User: Which sequence fits this backbone?
């Protein structure tokens, strides 16, 4: 059973950057897309972007393009999400989630499962 | 971006009731539609993918249907543990998008 374990809560100043990590158990890290989704307090789910480990392909939501960087380290089965120029409205719980399975050039999409436990990022002066 | 619109935004139902949540996409999304359940303070849980395929371990009282732009999540007999917020999501075209959520309260 794959598990995704995220790094701990962060408190950041406006204008700074944050990096959240997501470590996957098991040996299938490079076989699945890793997504990042955030949820502001009392709000819905917002997809930020994804990475295809091994290939390094990234896709970002236009809203975050230029501010978000998603990377993956296959040697440690860990994905990272960096967000820069933080604002107060970036205060949210950030989740990683495993997405489509990868076979060669084909990605089979079957929803996001499992999810990490979430990381609260608070942006406050 | 494809907009996903859920209705209702919230509902209250009794144990044993049949509950239906709808999700409408702003354009055709083939069968690239998933449903999630989220409880307060927890990560979302995948219930259904590809419109109607039940994720492993999910009770059979949950089912999904629909095509094109209109989709439905049905709980055939609501149980006390089914409270929470339900989201639909499309993976047809980037950026992936979620519905705004439907909060289910058990009377």
Assistant:
């Amino acid at each position: 059973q794959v598990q995704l374990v995220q790094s701990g809560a962060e408190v950041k100043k406006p204008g700074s950057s944050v990096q959240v990590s997501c470590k996957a158990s098991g040996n299938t890290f490079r076989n699945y897309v890793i997504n990042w989704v955030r949820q502001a307090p009392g709000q819905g789910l917002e997809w930020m972007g994804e990475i295809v480990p091994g290939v390094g392909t990234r896709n970002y939501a236009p809203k975050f393009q230029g501010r978000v960087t998603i990377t993956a380290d296959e040697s440690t089965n860990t994905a990272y999400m960096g967000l820069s120029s933080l604002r107060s409205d970036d205060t949210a719980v950030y989740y990683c989630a495993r997405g489509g399975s990868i076979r060669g050039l084909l990605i089979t999409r079957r929803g996001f499962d499992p999810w990490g436990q979430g990381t609260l990022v608070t942006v406050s002066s | 971006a494809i907009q996903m619109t859920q209705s209702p935004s919230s509902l209250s139902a009794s144990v044993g009731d049949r509950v239906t949540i709808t999700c409408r996409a702003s354009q055709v999304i083939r069968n690239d539609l998933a449903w999630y359940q989220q409880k307060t303070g927890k990560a979302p849980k995948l219930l259904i993918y590809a419109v109607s395929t039940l994720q492993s371990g999910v009770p059979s009282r949950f089912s999904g249907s629909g095509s094109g732009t209109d989709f439905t999540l049905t709980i055939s007999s609501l149980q006390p543990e089914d409270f929470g917020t339900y989201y639909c999501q499309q993976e047809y075209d980037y950026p992936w998008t979620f519905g705004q959520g439907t909060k289910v309260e058990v009377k």
